[in-house]
Design a protein that fits this description.
single chain, alpha+beta, 22 strands, six-stranded antiparallel sheet
Length: 684
């Protein structure tokens, strides 16, 4: 290569540099491709989220419409015997119009009025199921019969499975709602879901290009069933289908969600995201052909390659032509530069034989070599000093990092809550290893006692880039719990939140002491001390927000006689079982149950009408009675019962805590005077 001319050398280096840049460009293009594939997964996940949110909104709207239908029938039942055969022999003229319009406007295929005996008294469509009985008739094993029996138990309504329903000659799903009067079920309103509406939501392919597909299916009795027609797969709605190969069927059946690249049944590469819709018990997956996702990348790659080769050719031609007149001085300067690069800084060039411009360049080159020699000597000294300081700082920093890792409970997550780092202290307090935590969602340590509202407020705060502080109850790997005082700080890059860092300290002992101070040890309810603290706070909150508040005083009837007859151990068991019922009815925020002493309990609830307060107290009284705990000294029931006194404070009342307590106690006394085992309610 030493005998090469400058022109040839220039061409050689141009080719070498072009090769390097070609490799770099290829690497960049491939990285862009991976980024496009990654963004494709994010896009398909977002499409799936939009799809599931649309389905969940549709389900929520159907439930709301069912509630509205319940209100219509409830209103009508106050004036007419809606659930009797005599009413439907000659119903009001406008009734069928009202119900038909309601079904059409709210997207229901059919609406049913059913008596508690199971007779279908009315339906909009008047199909073969009209006037049949859901206990003994031909459709007693249908999904309509199932939701009807569920409603008789006054359980929250749900959407049934989509199964073939002979009267409609199609697959159908149902919902039902009990109609109550005086706390008792007097009949049931039921609706049949319109398949076309939910199919329209699923088969909306506006975000899925030409190859996109939405797979809605259920796994039932060892078979996969398509719940909507497929765009490309050839499956009809409610028909059997092959097990999908593009997502992990076993994981999806357990309710897990995710996304990945996979091969579909035809062997084509697809991007797929899947989720489980709890309300419908459906598995929903969204796919799009990987080739369609990468079309933009292919076009970009082709354009870059054309520009690259054209540019290399043009620049090479220009460089060769320009260097042909400078080969002599360039050759000498090149040799001297090599000499300089080898550490010989004593440069001697005879510049007089060159043009004036080259003389200036040569003199500058010689001066530069002297300065380089001086600077390198300085840099060597500085480099040695810096290396020593860096080693010392690195050792100190590592010591700090080791201390933080060992003693500070810290973790980092990405913006979706997936754990990317945990400290040794975090593993020690949670009982998990780093391998068990990293890559998992932070929900792995969430305790079910923590309210969803708190985490919703937490995510709203940190997603907006603000710091959140608070106390959180977490669950260890062995199922026990621990409390931490937590500070979560968002990590922001280029104005966007990309992750979160949490720092905590253990406050479990503090929380245990606080809980022991306000809890009755035998029943687990709040004690009188906590009652005194809570009643004033809740009363002030009710005054500020202008909502009603009720205090229920509860006393176990003839409890002293029970203790005398069956012993104190059995008496304690009675109090514990009554407490369990009170806990069941006070699970929402702002609702509290207390043991004030002996057999005396109290319940504090709000934001209801007077009839709802009575209904709640009556359900508590009835549930205690249905325990059927024998108490022969408590006539006439001969079982354990309770008396309840309810004092309801209106939104504008200025009553004090002491006055509210006295009124509730007076109502309790009234219940006892009237024979016990009853509820008395009074407004103050």
């Amino acid at each position: 290569m030493r005998n090469m001319t400058v022109t040839r050398r220039t061409v050689f280096w141009l080719l070498a540099i072009s090769t390097v840049w070609f490799v770099v460009l290829t690497f960049v293009v491939l990285q862009v491709r991976e980024r496009v594939r990654h963004d494709g997964l994010i896009e398909i996940r977002n499409v799936l989220q939009h799809k599931t949110e649309s389905i969940e909104r549709y389900v929520g709207a159907q439930k709301t419409s069912l509630d509205n239908l319940g209100y219509i029938i409830d209103f009508e039942s106050r004036h007419h015997a809606v659930f009797s055969r005599s009413f439907w022999k000659d119903p009001p003229a406008e009734w069928n119009t009202i119900v038909s319009d309601f079904a059409r406007e709210n997207g229901f295929y059919d609406v049913f009025i059913i008596s508690i005996q199971g007779d279908i008294l009315y339906s909009v469509k008047e199909e073969n199921d009209l006037h049949t009985n859901l206990f003994s008739g031909p459709y007693r094993n249908s999904e309509l019969a199932a939701v009807f029996k569920n409603a008789l138990s006054n359980v929250l309504p749900y959407i049934s499975d989509f199964r073939y329903y002979p009267p409609s000659r199609d697959y159908a799903a149902f919902m039902a709602k009990p109609i109550l009067k005086g706390g008792k079920v007097i009949g049931v309103a039921a609706v049949q879901i319109d398949n076309r509406a939910i199919h329209a939501v699923i088969n909306d392919y506006r975000e899925l290009g030409k190859t996109g597909e939405v797979i809605a299916s259920v796994y039932r009795n060892g078979e996969w069933i398509a719940m909507a027609p497929l765009r490309h797969g050839g499956y009809k709605a409610y028909g059997r289908m092959h097990e999908p190969s593009c997502f992990p069927a076993d994981e999806v059946r357990k309710g897990e969600k995710g996304e990945r690249y996979a091969l579909n049944a035809k062997g084509s590469g697809v991007a797929v995201a899947w989720d489980y819709i709890e309300e419908l018990r459906w598995i929903v997956a969204v796919t799009i052909n990987e080739q369609e996702l990468l079309n933009g990348w292919y076009k970009l790659m082709t354009s870059l390659m054309v520009i690259f080769f054209n540019g290399v050719f043009l620049i090479g031609f220009m460089v060769v032509m320009a260097f042909r007149s400078f080969s002599g001085p360039i050759q000498e300067l090149t040799n001297k530069a090599k000499q300089l690069s080898e550490g010989d800084y004593d440069i001697d060039i005879n510049a007089s034989k060159y043009d004036y411009e080259w003389q200036i360049l040569v003199d500058a080159f010689k001066q530069m070599s002297l300065e380089i020699k001086h600077k390198i000597a300085q840099l060597n000294e500085l480099n040695q000093s810096l290396e020593e300081r860096i080693r010392a700082k690195a050792q100190t920093l590592q010591q700090y990092i080791d201390i933080v890792d060992k003693y500070v409970i810290t973790s980092r997550t990405d913006k979706y809550g997936i754990i990317t780092y945990v400290s040794e202290a975090f593993c020690r307090v949670s009982g998990y290893t780093k391998e068990e935590l990293i890559g998992k969602n932070h929900r792995i340590v969430r305790h079910p006692d923590m309210s969803p509202e708190l985490f919703a407020q937490l995510w709203t705060t940190i997603s907006a880039g603000r710091v959140w502080k608070g106390e959180i109850k977490n669950r260890r790997a062995d199922g026990t719990h621990y409390w931490v005082d937590t500070t979560i700080t968002p990590t922001v890059e280029n104005g966007e939140v990309v992750g979160y860092t949490a720092v905590r300290h253990d406050i479990t002992d503090k929380k245990m002491i606080e809980e022991m101070a306000v809890t009755d040890p035998m029943t687990g309810l709040y004690n009188r001390r906590h009652y005194v603290k809570t009643i004033q706070k809740e009363l002030n909150r009710a005054k500020r927000s202008r909502y009603s508040l009720a205090l229920m005083m509860i006393d176990v009837d003839n409890f002293k006689l029970y203790n005398d007859t069956y012993g104190h151990q059995e008496g304690d068991e009675v109090l514990s079982r009554v407490a369990e019922i009170l806990k069941m009815y006070t699970s929402r925020g702002g609702e509290c149950a207390f043991r004030l002493g002996g057999e005396e309990f109290a319940v504090l609830v709000g934001s209801m009408e007077e009839a709802e307060y009575y209904d709640l107290a009556e359900r508590i009284r009835r549930d205690v009675e249905t325990l059927h705990i024998v108490h022969e000294k408590n006539p006439p029931a001969s079982c354990v019962t309770i008396s309840v006194g309810v004092a309801m404070r209106g939104p504008d009342s200025a009553i004090t805590c002491e006055e509210l307590y006295k009124h509730a106690d007076a109502q309790l006394y009234r219940s006892k005077e009237q024979g016990r085992n009853r509820v008395s309610v009074g407004s103050v």
